[in-house]
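Final report, results section. Input specification for complex C-07:
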Amino acid sequence: MIRINENYRKLQASYLFSEIARRVRRFQETNPDRDVIKLGIGDVTRALPPACIDAFRTAVEEMAADDTFRGYGPEQGYDFLREAIATNDYAARSVDIHPDDIFVSDGAKCDTANIQELFACDTRIAIPDPVYPVYVDTNVMAGRTGEWNNGRYSNVVYLDSTPDNNYVPDLPREKVDLIYLCFPNNPTGATVTHDQLAAWVRYAFDNKALILYDAAYACYIRGDSLPRSIYEIDGAREVAIEFQSFSKSAGFTGTRCAYTVVPEACRAYDSQGDVQFLNAMWNRRHTTKFNGVSYPVQRAAAAVYSAEGKRQTRELTDFYLGNAALIRDRMSTMGFSLVGGEHSPYIWLRIDGDSWEFFDRLLNEASVVVTPGSGFGACGEGHIRISAFNSRSAVVEAMRRIGALFQ
Amino acid sequence: MIRINENYRKLQASYLFSEIARRVRRFQETNPDRDVIKLGIGDVTRALPPACIDAFRTAVEEMAADDTFRGYGPEQGYDFLREAIATNDYAARSVDIHPDDIFVSDGAKCDTANIQELFACDTRIAIPDPVYPVYVDTNVMAGRTGEWNNGRYSNVVYLDSTPDNNYVPDLPREKVDLIYLCFPNNPTGATVTHDQLAAWVRYAFDNKALILYDAAYACYIRGDSLPRSIYEIDGAREVAIEFQSFSKSAGFTGTRCAYTVVPEACRAYDSQGDVQFLNAMWNRRHTTKFNGVSYPVQRAAAAVYSAEGKRQTRELTDFYLGNAALIRDRMSTMGFSLVGGEHSPYIWLRIDGDSWEFFDRLLNEASVVVTPGSGFGACGEGHIRISAFNSRSAVVEAMRRIGALFQ
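Structure output:
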């Protein structure tokens, strides 16, 4: 008899964005004349940079002729892209990451979801709260958690991100094996300093733990005060895997390209306590279960590192940061306390009361869509996330409407 | 302490295509003047159909302007593609598959690799031999097999495909839960009749088993005598999941698009023996661990179903079938017994002795690369696979050279 993986039954309905969509749809049906402004979902709104489009076009033409056509490529990604990443995202900042450490994929979602397959079933995981739900859900599916109880799974160490710690979680008091971190954070927009991150790396060394570092929003960091990669911390190459994406840096959410860094020195242990290197294991996983990213998409991604590509992606992220600064400024003026919106496209707002009620109020009274914080975890209650991904005029108008409510 | 998934240590080195590449490289280094013809790897060689290129180009231009740009799409695929698949690959052949049953992905490799996650750890699996190695390896990683011993994993029911059964395996004598089938087969090129497939569907009903049907080569079937989908068999929608791909039908090996069909009625059981529907489970898996296929790629794939796209992909597969017929004819004339090459781009040749020795002889004496059968499993020994994916002139020349050796 074919039996299911019963761990799936522990999963809670992933209702956050579908519930938002349902409420927005109902509102629009009953208020067809109202212009709804969406600052909810974390999806970019502006076109791909022209440099990426040019490279994309050229590669599509290559696929049109037998003598330039490309079939299966290397599962790990083409050398032209892996080398461009190593040179520009790492060597240029004096971080020693080799092309062989880099695995190109179709999304940081897939990679952060799949990486847990490399580890033992009884791995003790630590996951921030609030959090991008993929980290938790994929561990539920794999059977590493217990049941859902009072808004949390058992057998998970939750790392609370609260006003008290300025939304940067403290080191866990108990021993954990696998730690998920994300900075600049989704959903809070909080950032981490070199010293704070170094404390996590030290924890990983002291406890033979591993850090999974989601740096998908690193492209929003400005200046040199904050780390853009965990490998800026000494020793991190032994104890951390890093996830990066072209989604938020170059608008690839619908085009699909990302990469994961598993340095050659990165290690775990077998049941005898002997060191096992994770680069070889991830390579085996990647080549067995994945067949590489679409060739024209890899060419488009590599164009991010051309001189024009760098200028254009900077312009793009600057634009969204401009929106974020505007939201930050207006909401602060209205008296809200908040974090994020600097070095991040997200603003995490403290509110009074229930976050779904606040969501409904903004929708019904201002026709503005945000994301209720409780959808990201228990610590998200009493907060909402405002996203800077929209046009300038939409952001200005949304702030005007919210201002009319609260001032 | 972070411990690895120890199942990875059971995996055998996946050396088949890397070992072929190594031997070919060495041969070319020592014989730089010899023109090597590759009929080894199963990768297409001809350009994307013009209809796909046109749609690809148009979609790239959409990504270049803010008002036509697409961000995150539905993880399951855009409706325009799911509907085109349902209409053309199913309804047109009177098979009742709905768009909601179809999950667009970036490759049949990923889907056949990931599908096992839905099932219990102690699922008893049946896998053909010879076989595409992904089916076995992904179950090894998940811990469903025992150790490797004498060329096979314990706890796997191998379905022998041999000259005695004309390379279509018999039903297992023992009870199994999950059955992998692939027709037209990779690597043998063998095909299955409606009656043979109906017997497997009956087995699945009788034993509450599930069939995973890899139909990536269905586009090479000509005429109406053979099933192109398992859903042509009555009742299969309850007991089978099907995998299809644009790789071999429209040359998408480097462009990446495929789809998996999990009909609404398709069922497994929980530990209480109650029915659980797999469409909802796969939907949960797909939306949690995957973010959809690149929008321009989905547009290119949908163009396969336009009038020109149908004509052009037919022309493309006809071309490779022409190569296959030529190989079949010439090798038969030389006195080899073989299967495949009709309704399939692969020819599976019986040879005397060791398949790596035969590989070396063809490489050294004819400068022709094929694939040694033993790389696909124990039953592959004494065979080689010849692929029809090359230009006509290369195939003609390869046959001339091999003919000079054996006639």
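Chain A touches chain B through 83 residues (CB under 8 Å). The longest helix of chain A spans residues 307-333. This concludes the modelling results for the funded period.
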